[in-house]
Amino acid sequence: MRKIAMTVAGAALLVGAGLATAPGAQAATPCPSGAVCIRETNGTILSKNIFYSYGAHNLSNVTGYRVVVNSQTGGAGFQECLGYNGTNCSPVYRATGDYAAIDYTPINSLVLVP
User: Fold this and answer.
1) What is the DSSP letter of 75?
2) Under 8 Å between Cβ of 86 and 111
3) Extents of the domains making up the chain
4) What are the protein's UniProt keywords (predicted)?
5) All residues at 6 or more sequence positions from 32 whose CB lies less than 8 Å from its CB, including other chains
6) N or C: fewer beta carbons within 10 Å in the chain?
7) 3-state helix/strand/coil string of the chain
8) Does residue 28 surpass a pLDDT of 90?
């Protein structure tokens, strides 16, 4: 229980500092159903950052803190990768919705998985 409380306290600290919050619901562009999207810092989503097909997608000029939105259906997930072409990747994230903002400067590709 202590670990959970410390994790919640840490998350609250990040949210209070504005580091883990998504853009306001009114300002944010929705991610289309069936896609994974990367939001710009102003809450918009560029068409080049909407991904529908499974497999690796190399990123270009995606830097700074970004929010990823998983709008895929059927339990499909995604991975964030340090290398191009889907190498050196994170675990698979399957939950739908907005993820906490992270620094995308070292991230070079996303992999969509069924």
Assistant:
1) T
2) yes
3) 23-113
4) Signal
5) 50, 71
6) N
7) CHHHHHHHHHHHHHHHHCCCCCCCCCCCCCCCCCCEEECCCCCCCCHHHEECCCEEEECCCCCCEECEEECCCCCCEEEEECCCCCCCECCCECCCEECCCEECCCCCEEEEEC
8) no
Round to whole Å and give the CA distance between 34 and 53: 9
CATH of the structural domain 23-113, one choice from 2.60.20, 2.60.40, 2.40.30, 3.40.50: 2.60.20
Q: What is the pLDDT of residues 45-84, one digit of tens each?
A: 999 999 999 999 999 999 999 999 999 999 999 999 999 9
